[in-house]
Predict the 3D structure of the following.
Amino acid sequence: MSATPLLEHLRGLIRADGPLTVERYMDIALWHPQWGYYATHSPVGAHGDFVTAPEISQIFGELIGLWLADFWQRSGAPDPVILAELGPGNGTLMTDLLRAAATVPAFRRALRVHLVEASASLRAVQTRTLHDAAPTWHDSPATLPSGPLLLVANEFLDALPIRQFERQADGWHERRVGLDVKNELTFVVDPARITENLPDWPVGSVLERRPAARTLARDLGRRLALQRGAALFIDYGYFPPAPGDTLQAVARHERCDPLRSPGAADLTAHVDFADFGAAATAAGAHAWGPVSQARFLKALGIDIRARRLADGKAAQQQAQIESGHRRLLDETQMGTLFKVLALTGGDAPPPAGFD
Ligand SMILES: C[S@@+](CC[C@H](N)C(=O)[O-])C[C@H]1O[C@@H](n2cnc3c(N)ncnc32)[C@H](O)[C@@H]1O
């Protein structure tokens, strides 16, 4: 392992305070203000570390724009309405969805664009790509203005830090990141038994919890129950709950060891959709889905839109549209692993795509 400044910093913390929770490790590796991944990398896109659905095909954002317009019209067309995106990356999803939203002029006029983004370098990218939308930035969803809300988040929840627990013969124990005899980062198991109520899974199982996602679901659930609106989350994850260690690291489009090169690789983990939906429902919202990304996009008409977009284009562009379409829908690529969950409040109409 090469000794990066962040690695030295983590070693110092572990020597001083003992092994770190996986949650704290992820938070430092991603968000350390000087050496964290988001402070030092421009992650999204072919030239970054990973590619997301909006970067693969413009149709992804366009269909979400139409989904929002449809929900807005059927829920009384509130004007103004806050359009918020959590973790907008390069601003591609927002650009595509606003273009589609403009096909319903009254909807486009009603939108007030708000972006929740913690990365200064990605905010700089969004300032360029979303200049015409005149967005307002926020550090957290808590400062979004009150009123009817439409919220979207693609690959946002997977970036929120997780805790991990391991089932041993005497019960559940927290997994932590410590140091081995060679002074390298390694997973260790906290000797203290966890007293909170966790499921009765077999010895050896790993269980993941994501406190920040639960808090977000609870706060959004409360808000949507009191004010009008909908929130759409697209991410990779599992449903129903399942044991397993899903912490993963990606750099330059390749998977790598999550404890190797902290700060130089993106760290994520799969989303527990049941847990997220339950936290929002307990706070008063209605949860829809999750359904697979393929099923959702097909219900929204992706096949027709792809054919129309390819019509009359040069062969190379047609091939690009076709390959993007396949990547979003294919079972072996993003079609099944990626899932879509919507939250709505009060007596909102059923959102499209969740029949
Ligand atoms: C995987 S990228 C997804 C980007 C974009 N949604 C897309 O689909 O291309 C995660 C995004 O969420 C942002 N992000 C992650 N954790 C965050 C947090 N706790 N608060 C605010 N933004 C966060 C990142 O800076 C980045 O913009």
User: Anything to note?
Assistant: Residues 310 and 318 are 5 Å apart (CA to CA). DSSP finds 13 helices and 16 strands in the chain. Residues 295-338 form one domain.
